Amino acid sequence: MRTQQSGFTMIEILVTIAILVIGLLGLAALQTLTTLAELESYQRSQAVVLVRDLADRMNVNKGNLNSYVGVDYGLATADCTGLTGAALDLCEWGNQLNGAAEVTGGGKNVGAMIGARGCVVKMDAQTYLVTVAWQGLSSAGIPKETCGAGAFGAGALDAQRRTVSTVVRLALLAAP
Description:
Number of helices: 2
Number of strands: 4
Number of domains: 1
Strand content: 15-25%
Strand order of the largest sheet: 1-2-3-4
Order of helices and strands: HEHEEE
Shape: elongated
Helix content: 25-40%
Structural class: alpha+beta
């Protein structure tokens, strides 16, 4: 007469462990994607703050808006002492883009975005486009703004470029 066995067999335990491992790997991948999305969101919010900062500076100094036009601001930290007006605004903005406000103990800039650069383009007599470009962590399509184009890699790598823009308009004081 055979006795009936009860409990789990070794194969059932191995299948259970395999299913558990697959689930935990999926959870780890989800955590990694969440961290990347959080960093992308942080960089975008920093870019919005910096775009609005220069737009506000330009609105205060409307008499010299043409002095703000240029590309690739923020490539290196600069000394802004002795500068005034638009030159001071652009120097300080470039330092903010470069992350000069947050420095490690070793003196390395760690603030702002990855490879941030700024551009100001004159669109017409009263309209200027302020753009901040930086390198994202994944491909998301190539932005239509040309600021920073090709700076983070050509072709498919340019799809890692992110941009945030705002328009600054000079109000007309008299009817045309």
